[in-house]
Design a protein that fits this description.
Elements lengths: L1 E3 L6 H4 L4 H11 L5 E3 L2 H30 L4 H4 L5 H6 L6 H28 L5 H13 L6 H4 L10 H6 L1 E3 L9 H22 L3 E2 L4 E3 L2 H29 L3 H22 L4 H9 L1
Antiparallel strand pairs: 1-5, 2-3, 4-5
Helix pairs in contact: 3-6, 10-11, 11-12, 12-13
Protein name: DUF6594 domain-containing protein
Pfam families: DUF6594 (PF20237)
Keywords: Membrane, Transmembrane, Transmembrane helix
Length: 283
């Protein structure tokens, strides 16, 4: 995870990397900042154009096929039953086969574009924290020489900034396949720690990029240890409390409260589905 630390920049070190090379280094060091435009509108328009081209060529091909079948020409009438005749045609090849090849090329482009667009649509939007860090870095590092390139992520403020932000995707989401506790640590605890302690003590400063890195894997391991300890303490503490309470009504109330607490904690500390939480709480 990355936080901005521009106060520690070394001017002489900053000159060693420029432009897109510097930005690429930032993205390479923090997977959560691999933020790009998806160009959904342009991709959809490209598919529509290809689809229209295919329909037009298909219509032309159907007309050629009908003309060949009703031509009263023995060779042309064989086109529908023999690829060999269709490819060889009358002397230098048939018009129908040329149109088939044109359609094949368009279909190949269309199918490739459709599958790629489907993959793009599955990409997640960057989380607010990562997006804000990335936006701050861009605003404080003028790495592009042209306005259009500088505004390629977030657009021109007040003009197309909201549209561009909705178009952003991340290639590797930091918060995917993690539990709620880990997400909370990434979103809340790490920024809080950095503002009060980490900004002075961390050794993970990238002076050249002007950023501070926190190891995602270490954070995930720490939350897993916390989850494991908590899952062991809760059942043991419930037995101790029930042992110390003699009144049956209070025991039943404690059991209900522990079940509620266990379900809430399980939902926060584990990637469990609702049915799994229900099964665990009723076991």
């Amino acid at each position: 995870m990355t936080t901005i630390e521009l106060a520690q920049l070394n001017p002489s070190a900053r000159r060693t990397m420029h432009g897109y090379e510097r930005l690429a280094g930032l993205m390479a060091n923090d997977k959560g900042l691999s933020i790009f435009r998806s160009f959904k509108k342009l991709n959809a328009k490209n598919l529509l154009y290809l689809q229209a081209e295919i329909v037009n060529v298909q219509t032309e091909l159907e007309g050629i096929i009908e003309a060949d079948e009703t031509s009263q020409d023995e060779d042309r009438e064989k086109f529908s039953t023999s690829v060999c005749f269709l490819k060889e045609g009358i002397e230098s090849g048939s018009e129908q086969w040329a149109k088939v090849l044109e359609l094949r090329e368009l279909l190949d482009k269309y199918n490739t574009a459709a599958l790629q667009y489907a993959q793009i649509l599955r990409l997640k939007r960057p989380h607010d924290t990562d997006r804000d860090v990335f936006k701050t870095w861009l605003s404080q590092n003028a790495f592009c020489s042209t306005i259009a390139e500088f505004n390629q992520w977030f657009g021109e403020e007040g003009v197309n900034d909201e549209e561009n932000e909705r178009d952003l995707v991340t290639l590797c989401g930091r918060y995917e396949n993690v539990d709620s506790l880990t997400r909370w640590v990434f979103r809340v605890l790490v920024p809080w720690f950095h503002e009060r302690v980490g900004v002075r003590r961390t050794k993970e400063k990238d002076i050249e990029a002007g950023t501070v890195y926190y190891d995602d894997e270490k954070i995930i391991r720490a939350t897993r240890v916390t989850s494991t300890i908590t899952s062991s303490v809760i059942p043991a503490s419930s037995m101790l409390v029930l042992y110390l309470v003699d009144h049956m009504v209070w025991r039943l109330i404690i059991i209900v409260l522990y079940n509620i607490g266990f379900s809430i904690i399980l939902g926060l500390l584990a990637k469990a589905r609702r049915v799994e939480v229900f099964a665990a709480s009723t076991a």
